[in-house]
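Worked example

This section walks through a single chain of length 232. The input is the sequence exactly as stored; nothing has been trimmed or padded.
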Amino acid sequence: MSTDSPLTTPVLPALPPAVHARAALSQDTLRNRKRTATRLAIRRAAIELGLEHGYENVTVDMICAVSTVSARTFFNYFGSKEGVYVSPTRVMPTPEQHRAFVAGSGSSVFGDLFNMIAETFVSVDADFELFQARHQLIHQTPELLNREKARISETEESYVGCVLDRYRFHGRSEDQTPDLEDEARMVVSLVSGAMRFAMQKWVAGNFTDTREELVQAASALIQRITSNEHWP
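Given that input, the structure is written out below as tokens.
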């Protein structure tokens, strides 16, 4: 009669929670990269088709065929044909950047606002070749150009709020200065003009400078101008 003990399945120790967390984070990162790659492929196909055939002649089916995605996937990412061409979201400062700007005690609200917007601009990952192609297509398509201008106006409105937040944080109010909102709008208009100048210079230079170099050069010009005794 055998006295051998029955075979038992060894019990493996449970994985620490940190291992599960890292695995989940890795899956999320991979998923996000895949989504980003799909979004970029769709956008690149749309822009190339727009430059070749003209925006008005491009269809969603054409974009899907070139980017090898289904129409359902396309609409999940962009919602409409126009959406794939215009900037899908307003790139705004982080809460930390906003708080630093509001609490800032620098002498130039104009310079501080430019630098905050510039930091946001520099931090955005971009395919420069695609950026250049999109810029070309938008400026040769009135419908897209008007939509882009509307998006920029919405963004500028948000920055007016940022400037007013700073004024109020430092004790200024509409009771003391009735045209305080007009002042904030003037600051944003001046900064928008400076950003537009920087972008035009970037385009004219065929995007040879990095965004960091572009921002540093523009910021240095603003510092020189706003520190000049003749600056109002």
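What to look for: The mean pLDDT is 82.
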